[in-house]
Amino acid sequence: MSAATVEEKKQLGDSSIQPHSNASSEGWHDEEKGQYDTRQNSAARNSHDEQDPETIETRSLAGSQMPPPPDGGLHAWLKVFGGFLVYINIWGFTLAYGTFQSYYSFTLLPDQSPSSISWIGTVQGWLLIVVGVLSGPLFDLGYFRSMLYFGNFLIVFGIMMLSLCKTYWQVFLAQGICMGLGAGLLYIPSLALVGIWFEKKRAMALGIVMSGIAVGGVIYIIMFDQLIHKAGFPWTIRAIGFVALVCALLSFPALLSGSSTLARPRKRRALFDSSAVKDKLFLLFTLCTFCNFLGYIVPYFYIPTFAQEKLGSSSSVSLYMLIGALAGSFFGRIGSGMLAHYFGSILTWGLCALTSGILALCWISIETQASFIAFSVFWGFLSAALVTLPSAAFASICPDMSRLGTRLGMSWSVASIATLIGSPIAGALLKTKANGETDFLGPQLWSGICLLVGSGCLVVLWAVTRKTMNTGWRI
């Protein structure tokens, strides 16, 4: 090894030798390549009068420790595999909650109202997002290993404790609180680690990771359906817990391989940007996500219950309708991403919100199993964009990429409240007719109207963005 090479390593620091260590050293997440460019250009401009170009370059590299991501290789694709396994547990279990909503209503917790039962699933989803936002600074400070271990422990522990539950508050603590906290701790690190290793192939890598949502939901629903009548609720949940444990154990070496230097403390990302509250595009974006999240998850929670109570379907058939929705969402995430590439994220997001809202209102007229199966599949396909495209759309309206992570975290924190209250409100709107039949008109109207209002807000966001940014129609 030459003396020049040794000297260069001393200047850049040991961590610069490993490509993966770069992005996290400044508190990066997968969206912050633009932040890096902004900081580098700013540093170069500020020091131009004092330093020559060679010194500027050396100091810039030494300060940022940011060589380009490798965009491939064993360690990089292991991060994708590990993130995929994590998403099977954290989001797959959340979107499969309709299975538990139906079982709790008819069997385990028949004395509880649908609204009360839906609070369990919405609290789990709310904690996933809120704790996920708050875990970003912990990742920046080098605690990703602790979050990975403790988050997976809480998920598996929560599932195992759920197998012992017999009362509402026991289920609420195990499934809503314990699993929600664990999922939130894993949400950001699993995405950030993948983003650190990929740049040009980042969209594809993150797409593979997020496909774990549908895969996990399908696996857990099928397991529940096949085991609940043979093994009973306790051992069915324990079997699901063992699968979650295997996924967790396999994710450890995959996500930790080649990432030892990420444990070093780094610059913490800010949690609040006061200038955002004066930005009309930020406020409009947050309003759009809030309205969409109020209605988005309602059908996922009530598909099995509607099939059993309204259509007379068996519990097994009703669960496979939910599987159809999750399978549709798998292809919807891919399709909406491709459409957004040609028409822009905001425009595609608005189109999917509009069609989802119309479809939710069409739910009112469904009276046969065949038509409801078609509705479930189309719902999953069209509504998938409502959680996939917002992050991409936000990059189009953020005036300063160095604040992208902070502002997106602020917006998602507000939108998470809609995730928390949307389904309980829909459950409270369920009515019982004089003949004892459940009337689902309230949740159907709630979901459809919220999504239509959200699509209207997106039209306003698109128009204001086009005028403010002075761009074409493809936004």
From TrEMBL:
Q: Which InterPro entries match?
A: MFS, MFS_dom, MFS_trans_sf, Proton-linked_MCT
Task: Tell me what topology the record assigns in the membrane.
Answer: Multi-pass membrane protein
Residue spans of biased composition, Basic and acidic residues class = 1-12, 27-36
Q: Where is the Major facilitator superfamily (MFS) profile domain?
A: 75-475
Classification via Gene3D superfamilies: MFS general substrate transporter like domains
Comp. bias (Polar residues): 13-25
UniProt keyword list: Membrane, Transmembrane, Transmembrane helix
Would you indicate the residue range of the signal peptide? none
Annotated TM spans: 76-97, 117-139, 146-164, 170-198, 205-223, 235-260, 281-303, 315-334, 346-366, 372-398, 410-430, 445-464
Q: Where in the cell is it found?
A: Membrane
Which Gene Ontology cellular-component terms appear in the entry? membrane
- Identify the SUPFAM superfamilies for this entry: MFS general substrate transporter
Q: What PROSITE patterns does the entry give?
A: MFS
Question: What GO annotations for molecular function exist for this entry?
Answer: transmembrane transporter activity
Positions of the UniProt region annotated as Disordered: 1-67
**Domain of life, per lineage:** Eukaryota
Q: Which family does it belong to?
A: Belongs to the major facilitator superfamily. Monocarboxylate porter (TC 2.A.1.13) family.
The name under which this protein is listed is MFS general substrate transporter
Q: Which organism is it from?
A: Karstenula rhodostoma CBS 690.94
At the highest ranks, the source species' classification is: Eukaryota, Fungi, Dikarya, Ascomycota, Pezizomycotina
